[in-house]
Structures are given as C-alpha cells and as structure tokens.
C-alpha cells in the first residue's frame, strides 16, 4: 500500500481552505490550475507506460478535480476514516486521471506516478483498493462500480451515518444493464446521500455512443428512474461545484456532465481513436505545450 505524502497533504489542505474561503473567481483559479497539473501528469504517465486511456482521462479530469479539490470530505492522512465521503470511479479504465488527482491531493507522493502500469507497480491499469489510498473499491469491468456505490450509500442510511457517496460513470458504461438495476435500487431506498456523475463525452471504444446504442434522452431516463437530475458543463468547475451539492428533493442525484473526450489537447479532442491510443514523442511535447498555455 502506498503511503501519504506529508508535503502533499499540506498543499491539499491549503488548497481546500482557499477553495472554501475565496470568492468564485479564486475558487475557479485554484481548481483550473489543479486540472492543468493533473492533465499534464496524465500525459506524462501514459507516455512513460506506453499504455492507457488518454481520451477518457482528459475528459473526466475536471470532475475528479472538483470532487477532490472542493467537495469530498476526505483526509489524505486518514484514507480509511469511517466518516469519510466515499468516491468510486466506476469507469476504472481511466485510472491515470484518478491516480494523478490523488497524488496531487497528497494521498501518495507525486514521484510514484512515474511507475504507472510498470511491472509490480501499485498503480495498475485499474484501481486497486489494497494498493492505493483513496481508492474505495477495485473497478474495471464496466457496470460494477455503480452498484458498489449504491451499497455504500445504503450502508450509510442503515447505520445512520452522514457521509456522502459519489460515483463517476462513463456514458458508454450505461449500456450495461447492472447500472439501471442500481439506479432503481437507489431510488427505491431514497438514497439522497448518493450522487452519480456521468462523464458524457459521447464516445466509447470504437464509435460514438449514439451509434453503438442510443442513450438519449439521457436526463429523462434518470428522472424516470426516480433521480434528481442536474445537467452541467463537465469542464466548468463552478457549475460542477453547484451540481455536486446535496440533494434538494430527498432523492439520489444524477449529474449529467457534458464533456469532451481528450479535453485540453486539441488533436485528441472528440476523436474516437484516442480512446486508448498512445501519443508519440512529438505529440507528447505538443500536448504538454498546449496544456501550459
């Protein structure tokens, strides 16, 4: 198991303080810089490993940064605190973005990111709770993480605990029927402490989601399953902060976050071949330069 980075924890707490206390412009500046740092780390990690899912990593970055930078009640020094908020990345193949966010939040040293997908590295291609602090459950097979999140939220309700549970799903992942069983269960038990965020980038492996199996009208589907639905720009930290607030209806919350696959790197954005394509050396340099502007 990796261990907490003390210096990173100090930075995490200071950032969280600023996000909580500054005006909206200051909050957005803090979260925007963190998103840029995470994206640059993702590019370097995938370059080093010559493996990964760069398109989905870049699309989900702003969601993860907003959660860890301004929403989740978590402490890198106490990753198993029983009162912590729970976060599950159901689209577990986008582990690079989660690892980078956790490292920039002090859960483990940034230097560990260079071991991404190396033999025997704790930073596997899919998150492992036994190896990485901040990972709640192992994910990878699509359609598994969301049901686990429902279980976490149900456990909180049964035990009378106040922690919240958040889960991020890919939109292509919603073609798995287990997700809709989980959605029905969450609504049936009025799990108001549960928030599901859909990374709606409209691309999946090999094709657009609507070509593979139509998801629209997606917001209406969630509403028909008994959820409080919020639609946002998934790259607008201000909109995300607002959308990730607690339920106002006593029902679970579904946030449909419109995103761009490959966000931040123009030649990767909204291109299906970058689901798990690896950039060459020139493309890595171009991506890092673009992410520095």
Automatic annotation (TrEMBL):
UniProt KW keywords: Thiamine pyrophosphate
* InterPro entries tied to this protein: THDP-binding, Transketolase_N
Top-level lineage group: Bacteria
Q: Which cofactor does it need?
A: thiamine diphosphate
List each copy of the Transketolase N-terminal domain by range.
Answer: 38-286
Indicate the family of this protein. Belongs to the transketolase family.
Show the PANTHER family listed in the entry: TRANSKETOLASE N-TERMINAL SECTION-RELATED
Provide the protein name. Answer: Transketolase
Query: What organism is listed for this UniProt entry?
Result: Streptomyces coeruleorubidus
- Upper lineage: Bacteria, Bacillati, Actinomycetota, Actinomycetes, Kitasatosporales
